[in-house]
Amino acid sequence: PGAPRHTNRLINEKSPYLLQHAHNPVDWYPWGQEAFDKAKRENKVIFLSVGYSTCHWCHVMEEESFKSKEIGEIMNKHFVCIKVDHEERPDVDKVYMTFVQATSGGGGWPMSVWLTPDLKPFAGGTYFPPEDRFHRVGFRTALLRIAEQWEENKDALLESSHRILEALRQTSEIRVQGQESPPPSKEVMDTCFQQLSRSYDEEYGGFSQAPKFPTPVNLNFLFTYWALHRTTPEGARALQMALHTLKMMAHGGIHDHISQGFHRYSTDQHWHVPHFEKMLYDQGQLAAVYSRAFQISGDEFFADVARDILLYVSRDLSDQTGGFYSAEDADSYPTTTSKEKREGAFCVWEAKELQALLPDPVEGATEGTTLGDVFMHHYGVKENGNVDPMQDPHEELKGKNVLIARCSPELTAARFGLEPGRLDALLQECRHRLGTARAQRPRPHLDSKMLAAWNGLMISGFAQAGAALAEQGYVHRAAQAAAFLRTHLFDPDSGRLLRSCYRGKDSSVEQSAVPIQGFLEDYVFVIQALFDLYEASLEQDWLEWALHLQHMQDKLFWDPKGFAYFSSEAGDPSLLLRLKGDQDGAEPTANSVTVTNLLRAACYSGHMDWVEKAGQILAAFSERLQKIPIALPEMARATGIFHHTLKQVVICGDPQGEDTKEMLRCIRSVFSPNKVLMLADGDSAGFLYRQLPFLASLERKDGKATAYLCSNFTCSLPVTSAQELRGMLSP
């Protein structure tokens, strides 16, 4: 392509999403004082557009509207236009998404909102087609109508925006009511289990019909519910629901069978046709969930899926300096000569393409069988494509196949007269060949932004998998990423986290001119990651940093009047509302995760005020937890941990000794949601000994590695047998 015809201010930004719009004919501004001042000076409405770089409908709206010269002229004439990357500025996104959801009944990206010059919203929606169609207002019409209303009815719009903001302020407030205490754990957990059980899809797993999302928060809740109710029919059902869902997801098209990792969600009930973008936060949470499934079941199938996710992230989402990139796009060019991107083009296959790549006859199989025959049968490939037209409204997948494991290995082997063990090797050879062929296709766009929060989730994935699967390489990768965070997303002078950094030229890491300070979710997910990394590596530096960050989180975000933490810190005049997230979605909300973080922090430090804070958060969310805990499954899970009290498992031993290692292997092989692990290695000057003086009284028995099970810093009799320890770890 020739030189771009237009360049706007976004060319000076670091965000891949903002840079995608730097050559629109729209006079875009980034979120900031320059744009706000212009709106006030010229008395213009602000048009705010929020999205992210791997968002399919954001691309569509850009192609249809933001690249249009005519629409660009209307926008520039009547509005001050601001672009925001919702992954960079979740605080801005949350304020206006709350408005859009309250006024339209739905939300999503791209988000389109019209604001008064003092940033109060008065109209909004999500995707707009360029022109009116099918009872839907077009973007051009919306722009012209709003410009006209601002000219003719400005006072009414200003009054309306003021009323809307006050209503939002009242309805979005989450605070403790009177002397409320944490809700009863049994009632909350039982209600959450029943609500999940009612929405469960018995045949395909998951908790809705379509679209279907992985929702790791639901699966983590079910694992904890099982652990606390192992001997009951409800406990057995909770475990069955979680494991069946994980198996069906892994067999489905939402799982990339060739290049590993998981796509964002399935558009159908069967986990078959996905929305093809791949997000870091999904990979991190799913790696941890599949590792727990292996811990609980002992089934290598789940361990293999966890390894598969971590292979994808190590290969495709890893920066050489140790950080993790945010996402890969759903859309890409089908061939190197294509002019238009298509959703899923990198991932789908035509039957004839597979036959050409896998022509080899299979020795020992039914006569005439080729590798292609075996592979296509196993993965549900059809000559004319296997995508239901209902799942493909734009016909981007016509004649294509999304791979889905339709048969068990035993059935496929029997179909072609093969030994099951032989089939595994054949399918592996096929997948390897297709991976090589796919590597020749144009890759989807990579969002190389690195976010503290999502890196935290991924560090937890590597650390938990490393511990549960006894794979030291994963623990090392988690430590490498934590060191990256400390170098690039932490300011040692202020002691604060930063939100984001970016891959620069020559593989350097760059920061924006004015770095974005970390939000609550950055602290919460990084603290969780550092606790997970300590338990996997037993290196006390990570523990020390986690406790420092917890103190900083308290200082920046705690609400001393209404309890719980605000999502953003005080003092930003451009933020109209300080909100508290109240829903566990694709990621758990920060207050949900921080309950368990606070309980772990108290166990590692002896600061019991953190236990009190955990209870105050549960009290602030008490009404929601008792009525609709399915909206907060991670917080519902935390109520169980709060009420059962975390057990401190203390190992006294030489970290390099075989007896210590055997004890640690035993602890890590057992799923026990209400424990924290620590190593008392005799270094009385070490960080843990300074925090917890009672550790000095614990010693090895008969010179062997010895385990103690402690609760509220009171310890059980010493145990030197791994088998005895295993029995003690069950809740």
From TrEMBL:
| Domain of life (superkingdom) | Eukaryota
Q: Where is the Spermatogenesis-associated protein 20-like TRX domain?
A: 7-168
Checking Pfam families in the record gives: Thioredox_DsbH
Biological processes per GO annotation: carbohydrate metabolic process
Matches recorded under PANTHER family: SPERMATOGENESIS-ASSOCIATED PROTEIN 20
What name appears for this protein in its UniProt entry?
SPT20 protein
Source organism of the structure:
Tyrannus savana (Fork-tailed flycatcher)
